[in-house]
Every structure is written in structure tokens, then in C-alpha cells.
Amino acid sequence: MNLIAPLITPDTTLLDMSFSSKKKLFEHAAELLAQTHGLKSTDIFTSLFERERLGSTALGYGIAIPHGRIKGLKDASGAFYRLKIPIEFDAPDNQPVSLCFILLVPKDANERHLQILGELAQLFGDDAMRSKMLAADTPSELIALLESWSS
């Protein structure tokens, strides 16, 4: 069992989406996750956007892990986006992002938040896994890939 697979559902696993900017991506994710958790989309968007202003959450290799702390959220949650057209994310390798895991954690999360981020970095650092994520045909197939992965 890993920490990542339980964070997403078929409803929060979106494949071949198109956005003109990371701001538009954050707006979409904020709406989606607000509906899923009964939260305010403005709170989610603000948290993601403010974190991104501190420094890009892009890791390189076409990967980004935007994340934010959300008041009123009980457990960590996420949304997985595979983008049809990669978007600019100020990545360290200057590559646009095509795989994006948006992570929300409770306002007071500490150790678990860092464990999840570390595991996401390991997952996305795996070349074979990235290729499989890019090739998955359905959200269920992508979730099964994440469930089968271990660090």
C-alpha cells in the first residue's frame, strides 16, 4: 500500500485535459476539489496559487506537484491531471508540464504531508512509471498503476 493511490478517485483523475495556463489548471482543480470535499474553491485556489508564488512546484521531466494547506480539510486529498498540451510551469529543466498531481493537506498537516510529497517525487522520478502514466487509457487504469507502485 502506498500513500498516493488512496488520494485520488476516478472523478479526480483527469486525462488529456487542456488548459492555457497553470492559473486555469488551478481554477479547475479548485472547483473540482471544492465540490468533492464541500470546501470553498477560492480557498483552494488561493492556497495553490500562493504556494506556487513562493517557487515553482514543477520537478522537471514534465512533472509538477502543486500543493496547498486547506483549513477545514480532514485528510489529504488529490487530483491527477494528464495534460493534452503541456503547459509552462517554470520548471528547473525548462520543460513544460504534462503530468500534474495536485495535493491538498489539512492546515495543520506536517509529517504526513512531507511523506506524501516525498513519495510523489519518487513515483514521478521513475522513468518507466512516467511512461506508463502517459500511456494509460482510462482513469481506472491510471489508478491501478498507482496502486501497484511501491517506493
UniProtKB/TrEMBL annotation:
What are the recorded GO MF terms, alphabetically? protein kinase activator activity
Boundaries of every PTS EIIA type-2 domain copy? 6-149
Q: Which PROSITE patterns match?
A: PTS_EIIA_TYPE_2, PTS_EIIA_TYPE_2_HIS
- List the InterPro entries: PTrfase/Anion_transptr (IPR016152), PTS_EIIA_type-2_dom (IPR002178), PTS_SugarTrans_NitroReg (IPR051541)
Q: Does the keyword Zinc apply?
A: no
The UniProt keywords, alphabetically, are: Sugar transport, Transport
Q: What is this protein called?
A: PTS sugar transporter subunit IIA
Q: What species was this sequence derived from?
A: Thiobacillus denitrificans
Specify the taxonomic lineage.
Bacteria, Pseudomonadati, Pseudomonadota, Betaproteobacteria, Nitrosomonadales
